[in-house]
């Protein structure tokens, strides 16, 4: 949203398990509104992906085999359902599984167009002004790995996609649906790693696991031109500032601590001595 011309529009969305969609004030951190979706048992269901339309008047939320569209100005449970596939084994084309990522063109260069991807490994191009089938469908863009991140170029001609446990960000030509190029990164886990484009459309930045840096590629040459770091952990997300020439990098991943067999044996022996 444009905080420069309208401070009231400086807000962001969040969703978590067993909670509704929340709209937060970016300046105060206060809760502005909540949006709720319910299943056929009238139980609250949580969104797996969220995106504003370019004008900010609608919120698109991804669920299992369905997109739900909320009016930003009308909090509550009122929404429009847009199924991406009638059921799991339906012969009709469309996205199956959980809708894991949604992206609109940043400047609405392609009016009405947006893309969505699923954890089942497919992605599709839609026109949100129309109900119905996708305009273009990629059934297996990342060799069956679940889609985690999509990004449309500022001119609306290119689509960038990233998937879990897949070591490349792919660049697609939306006019033909063909793969143009790929950019390497380390994405060896199920973690969602973000991607972003600079406002001039010259550079691609991507999250990167285990190397202590985010990666920046020159789109004209396809070569890595910078590493944003050093970081103490995984570069989990990246975001270019819309006009100030800055890049924000998110950092972190889940770490598990396991006790070794030697530690367990020493603990047992220690208990025996104390007895």
Helix segment count? 1
Beta-strand proportion? 35-45%
DSSP strand count: 23
Poorly predicted runs of 5 or more residues: 268-275
Oligomer: single chain
Kindly provide the radius of gyration, computed on alpha-carbon positions and rounded to a whole number of angstroms.
Answer: 21 Å
Distance between the termini: 65 Å
- The chain-level structural class is mainly beta
How much is the average pLDDT?
A: 86
Q: Helix amount, in percent?
A: under 10%
Strand order in space, largest sheet: 6-7-8-9
Helix-strand sequence: EEEEEEEEEEEEEEEEEEEEEEEH
Shape: globular
Question: Could you give a short account of the major beta sheet?
Answer: 4 strands, antiparallel
Task: Explain this structure.
The structure is a single chain. The protein has one helix at 261-274, and strands spanning 11-14, 21-25, 31-35, 37-38, 44-45, 49-52, 58-63, 66-71, 80-83, 99-104, 113-118, 123-127, 136-138, 147-152, 158-163, 168-173, 178-184, 195-197, 203-206, 214-218, 224-228, 235-240, 247-251. It is built from one helix and 23 strands. It has 275 residues and is mostly beta strands. 5% of the residues lie in helices and 40% in strands. The longest helix has 14 residues, at 261-274. It is globular and about 50 Å long. Strand 22 (235-240) and strand 23 form a beta hairpin.
